[in-house]
Amino acid sequence: MTHVAQERASHALHERSTGSAASHPSRVRSVPFTFIDLFAGIGGMRFGLERVGGECIFSSEWDRFAKQTYEKWFDEEPKGDIYGVELKDIPEHDILAAGFPCQPFSIAGVSKKNALGRQHGFLDLAQGTLFFRILEIIADKRLRPPVVLLENVKNLKSHDGGRTWKVIRGSLEDLDYAVFPDVINAIHWVPQNRERVFIVGFDKDVFGEGVDFHFPKPPSRRPKLGAILEKLTPEEERKYVLSDHLWTYLKDYKAKHAAKGNGFGFGLVGPEDTTRTLSARYHKDGSEILVRREGGNPRRLTPRETQRLMGFPKRPIVVSDTQAYRQFGNAVVPQVVEAVGREIIQTMTAHVLNSDTGCLIKKRSGGPR
Question: Is residue 369 situated within a structural domain?
Answer without folding.
Answer: no
